[in-house]
UniProtKB/TrEMBL annotation:
It comes from the Bacteria. This is Protein FrlC. Pfam families: AP_endonuc_2. InterPro entries: IolE/XylAMocC-like, Xyl_isomerase-like_sf, Xyl_isomerase-like_TIM-brl. Residues 21-269 form the Xylose isomerase-like TIM barrel domain.
Length: 273
């Protein structure tokens, strides 16, 4: 299993710190957060891409996953008018193009909140229609689009393994897969191993962090309530050999370099036990 560094926690640091630290701490790859100031897709396509490609080459750390910023202001394809949906999809198509240009294996997205007054059947119709349009673009690029389920506090569009399976079946694209952030099933009291079993070979990626079991706060591995040692053993026995990013987001913005070092050391120790 290859372990990646998520760059959102470095958003107050220069981007070269990400690649310097990933190389010196021993991360296998970077999952690049697509927000300003570092890697907003329109900025990349307008000329900023060359600087990131230079960092990849200089430090010999690949960008395996590109994760654009969306689902909040101003882009959420699950809420608002049709023109707002189309604007969000135009942006996400540019994100797919940026991920492809970076040489990433995949671009990951999720489905934002559809609003409290939207009927469930309309939520599902909008989600499937939008993902089908994005998957068509991914197919043209020969690039993998990966869908993540969120917690119910974050979304009412796609929050469970059942949602992921149903949506992937409905879209039916070879360029659309799923990923598992292990926090949402833990908070929903759903078995994480069951989520992995349900997705099967359509599981393309993992987010590994710890959780307090109450909120969606992402904690350094080994510093929460998740049984990570046992989960790592299950993944090893299942033969999972894909990517797993330690998704530290905003909880450690004040000291991303220290916590990125600790997170990898903790997870490697849990994997060895």
């Amino acid at each position: 299993m290859r372990i990646g560094m998520f760059t959102s926690g470095y958003q107050r640091n220069p981007l070269d710190h990400v690649f310097i630290d990933a190389a010196r701490f021993g991360y296998d790859y970077v999952e690049l957060w697509g927000g300003r100031p570092h890697a907003f897709a329109p900025d990349l396509l307008a000329g900023d891409l060359a600087g990131i490609l230079d960092l990849i080459q200089r430090y010999q750390v690949p960008v395996e996953v590109y994760t654009p910023e969306h689902n909040a202001y101003p882009y959420n394809y699950m809420i608002g008018s049709e023109s707002q949906r189309l604007d969000a999809l135009t942006y996400l198509r540019s994100c797919l193009e940026a991920g492809h240009a970076l040489g990433a294996r995949c671009t990951t997205i999720s489905a934002g909140h559809a609003g409290y007054a939207t009927p469930r059947v309309e939520v599902r119709k909008r989600l499937v229609r939008s993902l089908r349009e994005l998957a068509d673009h991914a197919e043209r690029l020969d690039h993998l689009l990966v869908l993540e389920a969120l917690t119910p506090a974050e979304s009412n569009s796609c929050t469970s393994a059942d949602d992921l399976v149903e949506v992937l079946d409905a879209v039916g694209s070879p360029r659309l897969a799923a990923m598992c952030d292990i926090v949402p099933p833990f908070l929903r009291h759903e078995p994480i191993t069951g989520t992995l079993d349900r997705l099967g070979d359509r599981l393309a990626h993992l987010h590994i962090v710890d959780s307090d079991g109450v909120t969606d706060t992402h904690l350094v591995p080994g510093e929460g309530a998740l049984p990570l040692r046992e989960l790592m053993a299950e993944l090893a026995e299942a033969g999972y050999a894909g990517t797993a990013t330690i998704e530290l987001v905003t909880n450690y913005l004040h000291e991303p370099r220290l916590y990125a070092r600790r997170a990898l050391a903790n997870l490697r120790a849990l994997m060895r036990d």
